[in-house]
Structure formats: C-alpha cells, structure tokens
TrEMBL record:
<protein>
    <recommendedName>
        <fullName>NADH-quinone oxidoreductase subunit E</fullName>
    </recommendedName>
</protein>
<dbReference type="InterPro" id="IPR028431">
    <property type="entry name" value="NADP_DH_HndA-like"/>
</dbReference>
<dbReference type="GO" id="GO:0051537">
    <property type="term" value="F:2 iron, 2 sulfur cluster binding"/>
</dbReference>
<dbReference type="Pfam" id="PF01257">
    <property type="entry name" value="2Fe-2S_thioredx"/>
</dbReference>
<feature type="binding site">
    <location>
        <position position="86"/>
    </location>
    <ligand>
        <name>[2Fe-2S] cluster</name>
    </ligand>
</feature>
<feature type="binding site">
    <location>
        <position position="122"/>
    </location>
    <ligand>
        <name>[2Fe-2S] cluster</name>
    </ligand>
</feature>
<feature type="binding site">
    <location>
        <position position="126"/>
    </location>
    <ligand>
        <name>[2Fe-2S] cluster</name>
    </ligand>
</feature>
<dbReference type="GO" id="GO:0016491">
    <property type="term" value="F:oxidoreductase activity"/>
</dbReference>
<feature type="binding site">
    <location>
        <position position="81"/>
    </location>
    <ligand>
        <name>[2Fe-2S] cluster</name>
    </ligand>
</feature>
<keyword id="KW-0408">Iron</keyword>
<dbReference type="InterPro" id="IPR036249">
    <property type="entry name" value="Thioredoxin-like_sf"/>
</dbReference>
<keyword id="KW-0001">2Fe-2S</keyword>
<dbReference type="GO" id="GO:0046872">
    <property type="term" value="F:metal ion binding"/>
</dbReference>
<keyword id="KW-0411">Iron-sulfur</keyword>
<dbReference type="InterPro" id="IPR041921">
    <property type="entry name" value="NuoE_N"/>
</dbReference>
<dbReference type="InterPro" id="IPR002023">
    <property type="entry name" value="NuoE-like"/>
</dbReference>
<comment type="similarity">
    <text>Belongs to the complex I 24 kDa subunit family.</text>
</comment>
C-alpha cells in the first residue's frame, strides 16, 4: 500500500498534466488508475477541487464506468469478458466458477490481495469466445477446466 503523501503527489501530478484538457475529468481518472492501479477515495476531493466540481460529481463518474476501480487491484488481475459473444458462448459459467472459487464479486479483491476480479466488455477475441484476461495474457475458448489450469499455473505473487 502506498503512503498517503506519495499517493497524493501522484494524483496531483496527474491532475497538473491533464487539468487544462477539454473534458479533463476522464483523462485524470484514467491517469490516476494507470499510475496507482485504482482511484483512491482520498483523491476524490483533490480532483473535485482542481476541476471545480462537487465530490458527488466525481464519484458519479467513477461509479458510472465499470472500468474504474476504487480499491487496489490484486497481484493477479483477472478480467472476464461479459460482452455479447462471450455471454453466448458460456462466460456466465466462468463467472460463477470464479466468484465461487475466489469468494469475491466483480470489482473486488481477495482478502489475501492475490486476485482481483473484474468484468470487461470485449477483449477483441470474440471469434474465440469466451475470453478472459489474466494479468497481461488474453485466453480464448476458455471453459471451467482450462480456467482451473490457467489459475493453477499462476505462481503465488510475492
Ligand atoms: S465479446 Fe468477449 S472478446 Fe469480444
């Protein structure tokens, strides 16, 4: 976990880099998530003040887009495609399997910090549905058996 002062310095830098762009809020939110892996609650009042918005307005945008996280991601990031093609080819079974196995819902991280689970809406692998991204690798035509194999291949992150 980052020190608060380090986190806020990063947030301030991202704001400074994007503040004068048209529609600056989204570039700022993306920049913070790229830099920190999530958008800390403590950054919301800083963003709101810089853009002369209310905290509720900033929160509203963060919660509208599923992409944005408000908690730190796990050491292994699992992103399951829930878009149409993958739904038609069985991603719901993968979703149920993952939620039961990890004991978490979408946008959550396991208590040991090892895994986070997120929904995404198309990984560009529709022809190989259902698709899943684990860390930087995208896998297609996944079923519960191959998913188990993929998970068992992951080294416990230090
Ligand atoms: S719909 Fe899942 S990869 Fe495109």
């Amino acid at each position: 976990m980052l020190e608060t002062s380090t986190m806020l310095a990063t947030v301030q830098q991202v704001i400074s880099d994007n503040q004068n762009k048209p529609g600056a809020l989204l570039p700022i939110l993306h920049g913070i998530q790229d830099a920190l892996g999530y958008i800390p609650d403590d950054s919301v009042p800083v963003i709101a003040k810089a853009l002369a918005l209310s905290r509720a307005e900033v929160h509203g945008v963060i919660s509208f887009y599923h992409y944005f996280r408000t908690t730190p991601p796990g050491k292994h990031k699992i992103q399951l495609c829930r878009a149409e093609s993958c739904q038609a080819m069985g991603s719901k079974a993968l979703e149920t399997h993952l939620k039961n196995k990890l004991g978490i819902d979408f946008h959550e991280t396991t208590a040991d910090g090892q895994y986070s689970l997120d929904a995404v809406y198309c990984l560009g692998m529709c022809a190989c549905s259902p698709a899943i991204q684990i860390d930087n690798d995208i896998h297609g035509r996944v079923n519960t058996e191959s998913l188990e194999q993929l998970l068992s291949n992951l080294e416990p992150a230090a």
